Amino acid sequence: MNKKPSSVDVAKAAGVSQSMVSRAFTPGSSINPEKRELIFSKAKELGYRPNIMARSMITKKSKIIGFVFGYLENQYYPLALEKLSREFQAKGYHSLMFFSDNQSSADEIVQEFLQYQIDAVILASVSLSPDWIEACHSLSVPVVLFNRAIETDDVTSVTSENYEGGKKVAHYLVKTGHKRISYISGFIESSTNKDRERGLIDGLKERGLEIFSIESGNYNQEQAKQATLSMFSEDKDLKPDAIFVASDHMAFAVIDTLRYDLGLHIPNDISVIGYDDVPLGSAPSYNLTTMSQPIDEMVSLTVNAVLNRIDQPDHIPERIEIPSQLVKRNTVKDHTHF
Known about the structure:
3 domains, Rossmann fold
């Protein structure tokens, strides 16, 4: 049986050191491009492939980042996952995807973590519990939250300024002459939803108004549809003149329901504003006014936060918040102009 070629064989064939061969196969490492090409060429001739698992046993680092998502229906998360994966790949890391629903325990997925010896975990769009954090920390696996936050001092989180975003929505809708402003929420217990709702309520109070009504959409399009129908049920004498929806994903369902189930015109009959600014929002069929979460900046800060926690285990966790911006399109009517 032929012996598999090793990095030592490649080094001899290329006339370089074994450490240079290792650097050549490490993305982002410093090495002369011509030397890298020579090493790749000799490796191909010999049929050599680097053994990542063997390297991880020596370095005690798997170079694998675990992602835990609750769902990917919201366009924001597949886009974020792609950008995160590409940035980590450019820095020599691999991505491993896990899914968790509200019924899944942390222990189940942490057991999977153990099999791959992941270097860090990013949690996004999942319900968080102290069990999650404790389980990861017991394995010395740093945790970073993406688009979520939790009231604890030992976890880094990266979000937009959701509270300020909710206030900006309130101020804008009042400024454009709306009086009956309703809210369709996401997961009631999620930090993003809590902050957006609290910001909306406080922003309305600053302008002398109270929130008109609240319905739960649970970040789900069908539930957002039912929430909209409830707001416009026939037994209600007064109905909203504007709806702030906790995500664009739900806002699309709200718009479709208003148009096709209730026969209303947007924005002449009712204004709608979302949150996230996903690509579909700019399509002519929706042209959705929304709060933009700066995804590229959030991704870069998340990657940096993860690498800081890996390289410096004693690095102090922090709550990172990035300003969100109002994107004005065509789903909000300005009642102050005639």
